[in-house]
Request: fold
Amino acid sequence: NAGVTQTPKFQVLKTGQSMTLQCAQDMNHNSMYWYRQDPGMGLRLIYYSASEGTTDKGEVPNGYNVSRLNKREFSLRLESAAPSQTSVYFCASSEFREGIYGYTFGSGTRLTVV
Amino acid sequence: GNSVTQMEGPVTLSEEAFLTINCTYTATGYPSLFWYVQYPGEGLQLLLKATKADDKGSNKGFEATYRKETTSFHLEKGSVQVSDSAVYFCALSLEKLVFGQGTRLTINP
Reply:
């Protein structure tokens, strides 16, 4: 099925460990995004990529890095995990068609940093 | 900057009650507006959308009208069901998607 695939679905890290969250889409979308979801705060944009080869900071980029490896893949890296990064992470992609952006979301990665 | 403010939750209703979840926005430009729904343990699904003033988005009995004069996009449903229990997010898009904080809705039988 076409869509956005995120891996892993669950992860537990110790403070200071590093990891990369993977995201891939097969809809040929130009734009991709990483959000984090925290209780009572909705989804906040971490980084986005408007096209292959470009990345930009969102609302909460500190402590994260991203790579737009190719048009399909957009990874999020935590270099030194902190408990404040415990959250649910969503990847999304979008295309602009008929005057509106259409967004597709992955199923999320639940990350716990202890 | 662009922002979305939603009605604070949680909201608890009885089955067949009328639902309104308020949403207002601030935007530098003319955004598209969305409602997303997140069922327990799942990701986000698009519920409905509107692209211009006075557009009405509708889906699964839910409706919302793009009101430019009041910068609002309130979600309504005439008769809710237990299966509507979820978290609802209002969002705007001007290239990037900006979300409200979410409203948790619980429907009791």
In short: The longest strand of chain A covers residues 87-97.
